[in-house]
Amino acid sequence: MVVVKAEQQAIEEAGRQLRAGALVAFPTETVYGLGADATNSVAVARIFAAKGRPRFNPLIVHVPDLDAARAHVEMTPLALRLAEAYWPGPLTLVLDKNPSCDLSDLVTGGLDTIAIRSPDHPVARALMQAAGRPLAAPSANRSGHVSPTQAAHAEADLGDKVAMVLDAGATAHGLESTIVDARGSQAVLLRPGAIDIDSIEALLGEKVLRADQAGERPSAPGQLASHYAPRVGVRLNATEARPGEALLAFGADVPATAGPVLNLSPAGDLIEAAANLFAALRTLDASGAQAIAVMKIPADGIGEAINDRLQRAAAPRG
Ligand code: TXA
Ligand code: MG
After folding, report:
1. Closest Cα to atom 19, ligand 1: which residue?
2. CA 94, CA 82: separation in Å to the nearest integer?
3. How far is the CA of 253 from the centre of ligand 1 (A)?
């Protein structure tokens, strides 16, 4: 039985599971989240595999408080005002990563920004404490399904993919957190949610911009144009590396080459490949090679998201 009542002993066991890289579904004040250790790329890759997300959408990182957030992001004066007013609570802030941030690249989809919040639910808070790690957690539903507001919803969608579902009854808001880009001096709304904009505008004494009024900013979460792309060209479905190319390999059968080679997964494991993808692209980008040749990667399961990401990296850009 994966659904367990969220009592202290179960929460402690869930904390151990998270530290070991497993997934745990848990209640927040908004919806149930599908949690993983945000510092462990393999664990985060399991989130994408479990949800069946066809893309590496960036995930929200859950932390106990403002001090814990400072370990990962650059707090701006605007972010500080918002966090002081709404944390713990259903407000997610998008902020720049700070240089000492040790979160997996997969959490941010390779972006230089992080969406972070401090949830206001006793079980979510006890779980973060038990795990001792920041938790990456999207809503605990299969991609395309509605967000779960009860443990049974999470179990129906993901029961075979998680170590545990911590059950604390129905969530209070039943609506996801409000997401605000707080990198600049003016707040930009990226997703409406449990905290209404009027309340934020009253606090700040000024209008909150909508993403489409904010020029360069992402037009909607999940449709971010600014995903990390290597500086050098990327060639897909390569069967060998040409002179000057670095090789991004997959599987046991790797062609001999003179240039730099990294293997996403010698065993042909797609979750391992997803976990290594962003770091491998960055390393080969910085290797001095003129281009990156990428071997064919199967498109099943999380392979679809890997191929989506590689296609964007290979797309012509201006
Ligand atoms: O209430 C919630 O926010 C729930 C609970 C579990 O905390 N979580 C949730 O996560 O709704 P998810 O993954 O279903 O939605 C996260 C949204 C996505 O639309 C994603 O694109 C956006 O946050 N997002 C994450 N990181 C971002 C970033 N760096 N910049 C802009 N948007 C980001
Ligand atoms: Mg969701």
Report:
1. 221
2. 12
3. 37
Q: How many Cα atoms occupy the beta-carbon half-sphere of 231 within 13 Å?
A: 9
Residue bearing tokens 């991609």: 143
pLDDT tens readout for residues 78-124:
999 999 999 999 999 999 999 999 999 999 988 899 999 999 999 99
**What's phi and psi for 160, nearest 5 deg?**
-85, 0
Mutate to test the pocket of ligand 1, among 29, 51, 56, 92 (most ligand atoms within 8 A of CB): 92
Main-chain phi, psi angles of 190, to 5 degrees: -100, -30
Distance 156 CA to ligand 2 centre (A): 16
Of ligand 1's listed atoms, the one at least distance from the Cα of 90 is 1
- Residue of 219, 179, 193 whose CA lies nearest to 82: 179
Q: Encoding tokens for residue 44? A: 């985060």
Cα separation, 121 vs 78, in Å, equals: 24
What φ, ψ does residue 32 adopt, rounded to 5°?
A: -70, 140
- pLDDT on residue 212: 75
Please give the backbone phi and psi of residue 194, each rounded to the nearest 5 degrees, phi first: -60, -30
Residue 105: partners with Cβ closer than 8 Å, 6 or more residues away: 41, 278, 279, 282
What pLDDT, on the 0 to 100 scale, is given for residue 80?
Answer: 98
Torsion of CA 121, 126, 131, 133, to 10 degrees: 50
Ligand that lies nearest to the alpha carbon of residue 62, given by its number in the listed order? 1
Q: Comparing C-alpha atoms, which of 20, 85, 29 is closest to residue 62?
A: 29
Structure tokens at 199: 């309340």
Q: Given ligand 1 and candidates 47, 57, 74, 180, which is best to mutate, with the most ligand atoms within 8 Å of its CB?
A: 57
Kindly give the distance from the C-alpha atom of residue 117 to the centroid of ligand 1, in angstroms, as a whole number: 10
Cα torsion through 183, 184, 189, 195, rounded to 10: 70
Atom of ligand 1 nearest to the CA of 137: 6
pLDDT at 103: 97
233-238: strand order across its sheet = 233-238, 291-295, 245-249, 261-263
